[in-house]
Design a protein that fits this description.
The complex is a heterodimer of chains A (246) and B (263).
Chain A: E1 4-15, E2 18-29, E3 33-38, H1 44-51, E4 59-64, E5 67-68, H2 76-82, E6 83-86, H3 98-109, H4 114-127, H5 143-155, E7 161-165, H6 173-188, E8 192-196, H7 200-205, E9 209-214, E10 217-222, H8 224-229, H9 234-245
Parallel strand pairs in A: 3-8, 3-9, 6-7, 7-8
Antiparallel strand pairs in A: 1-2, 1-4, 4-5, 9-10
Chain B: H1 8-53, H2 62-83, H3 87-100, H4 108-134, H5 137-145, H6 150-180, H7 192-203, H8 206-236, H9 251-261
Classes of the chains: A alpha/beta (246), B mainly alpha (263).
The complex binds adenosine-5'-triphosphate and magnesium ion.
The site of adenosine-5'-triphosphate has 11 residues of chain A, from strand 2 and helix 1.
Chain lengths: 246, 263
């Protein structure tokens, strides 16, 4: 087993009275590709957002290389570069070109020079097949193209792990493939990935482990083969029956 | 000089000929105060709007929380007071307040700059705050998520978009200021209205003079409005992205090309 990069212990999160995550424990090893599946409202996004501290956990701890990311003095900026995030709505900086989107974080957070940052950005834009669009503004790009730039932006920060929150859910069906293929490539390069997804094909074929969440808890977590063919928990079975039926 | 029997146009011609340079100088002063006031007011508005948009939670530490609350209350008072009183009254209070309470005799022009700036700042603070709130929160999240600080994301991502959104309101404020600097005549700033009043008073020819004055105000505001529209369009740039100079490649082909490059 590879070294553990991220460890979540007894994580809970409430919005007011509404307990969205309940005592969640799980860990991520280097190079692992984990798919998180579950019904709408089960807390998948909240879990991802807590891991990146976009959402403040109500209790519990998150360890990055055994270091508590909420400890006072923890370098959150560097951490967020190391554990990047890709959003459902892409969230490309609308006032910047594709290239600038991939450059600004490198310069501000990693203090790379503009030239160095641009070279690195170009390399990753090439990798996601967007090198012809370096000067395009987000509104000039299709959804699939935006998401590929967003992935390049996260990669340019030299991350150890990437968190994907439904990266293809906002896309027209014909654009899902181009983004999934980029993600498959990344998975094969050994990048650690945590992917919230409704793409059961991706979860089954690409991930090393599938985590099923329901009602704010992790119900089942196993290799895809087990989760998809002989799930232990009736709730997993129900969910899969419902979703695979469609 | 025209006499009592002279007609309207003779007088207008006379005033243009003899007072032309003075009118122009007055108009120049009006433009200068309006422009400076709008720009300084905009900077005030950005600063105040920025502070008022900082998220403020009790969990952030008591000192920061209460300090922020105090500063915000003071800024709120500033905005309310200046939006709820006429600029003509503000002019009197600031100008005579400076001389009788602080014993500072403000030069007229400087007083004009200060009054218009502070007044404009109050209006623009609210507009800037609205502009910041109109930017998709996803933009801030994306900045934070790659490790940029709140301030870095604000400066590099959110504010540029907010400013683009409020540009029409900013231009409007400039046009309003061109007109409203006329109230500064009550503290003897020699802007266009003050010059006109003096010229008209000398000959008791108010209609003729203020006819010329209206034309000058109209030309200034009309020109500025057109210029700002042009600027907005220019800033938006083209809607479509032309790859390698070709404009008609269908999108599907672009995607395929993109896909091929990644393999
Ligand atoms: N900022 C918030 N304030 C209040 N409630 C929230 C907030 N964010 C999420 N919630 C609630 O938390 C619950 C879990 O939300 P979450 O977005 O994590 O679900 P999800 O599993 O990602 O669902 P989906 O598949 O629809 O994205 C939902 O009931 C949601 O309404
Ligand atoms: Mg979600």
């Amino acid at each position: 087993m590879n070294e553990t990069i991220l460890q979540v212990n007894h994580l809970s999160k409430s919005f007011g009275d509404h307990e969205v995550l309940r005592d969640v424990d799980f860990s991520v090893s280097r190079g692992e590709v984990i798919s998180i599946i579950g019904a709408s409202g089960s807390g998948k996004s909240t879990l991802l957002r807590c891991m990146n501290l976009l959402e403040k956990p109500s209790s519990g701890e998150i360890l990055f290389h055994n270091e508590n990311i909420q400890r006072p003095g923890f370098d959150l900026q560097t951490y967020r570069g190391r554990v990047g995030m890709v959003f459902q709505q892409f969230n490309l900086f609308s006032n910047m070109t594709a290239l600038e989107n991939c450059v600004v974080g490198q310069m501000k957070v990693l203090k790379r020079s503009r030239v160095q940052a641009q070279n690195i950005a170009m390399a990753f834009l090439e990798k996601v097949g967007m090198s012809a669009y370096v000067k395009a503004k987000p509104r000039q790009l299709s959804g699939g193209q935006k998401q590929r730039v967003a992935i390049a932006r996260a990669l340019a920060m030299n991350p150890e792990a990437l968190l994907f929150d439904e990266p293809t859910s906002a896309l027209d069906p014909e654009m899902v493939g181009e983004v999934l293929s980029v993600m498959k490539d990344l998975a094969s390069t050994g990048l650690t990935m945590l992917v919230v997804t409704h793409e059961m094909g991706f979860a089954r074929d690409v991930s090393d482990r599938v985590v099923f969440m329901d009602g704010g808890v992790i119900v089942e977590s196993d290799v895809p083969e087990v989760v998809f063919t002989r799930p232990k928990h009736p709730r997993t079975r129900e969910f899969l029956a419902r979703i695979l039926d469609q | 000089m025209p006499n009592a029997k002279s007609g309207f146009f003779e007088w207008v011609f006379f005033f243009v000929k003899t007072y032309g340079p003075m009118f122009l100088k007055g108009a120049g002063t009006t433009l200068l105060i309006a422009l400076t006031g709008t720009l300084v007011g905009f900077i005030i508005g950005l600063a105040v709007g920025y502070v008022r948009a900082i998220p403020c939670e009790k969990g952030d530490g008591a000192v920061k929380y209460w300090l922020l609350k105090l500063v915000r209350t003071l800024l709120g008072v500033y905005i309310e007071v200046f939006r709820s009183t006429p600029m003509i009254v503000q002019s009197m209070v600031i100008f005579y307040g400076a001389s009788s309470v602080l014993h500072i005799n403000l030069p007229y022009l400087l007083a004009g700059f200060i009054i218009v700036s502070i007044n404009t700042g109050a209006y623009l603070s609210e507009i800037v705050r609205g502009g910041i709130q109109s930017v998709d929160p996803g933009q801030m999240e994306a900045g934070l998520a790659i490790g940029m600080t709140y301030g870095q994301t604000m400066l590099n991502v959110v504010l540029p978009q907010a400013i683009r959104n409020i540009l029409p309101a900013l231009g409007n404020e400039f046009v309003v200021n061109i007109k409203d600097t006329s109230v500064l005549n009550v503290i003897s700033v020699t802007e266009l209205y003050f010059v006109s009043k003096s010229a008209a008073g000398t000959y008791f020819k108010y209609f003729e003079v203020f006819f010329i004055t209206s034309v000058i105000y109209f030309v200034m505001t009309f020109t500025v409005t057109r210029f700002l529209r042009w600027l907005e369009r220019k800033m938006d740039g083209p809607q479509n992205y032309a790859m390698h100079g070709s404009q008609t490649v269908p999108d599907v082909e672009l995607i395929r090309k993109g896909g091929a490059a990644s393999e």
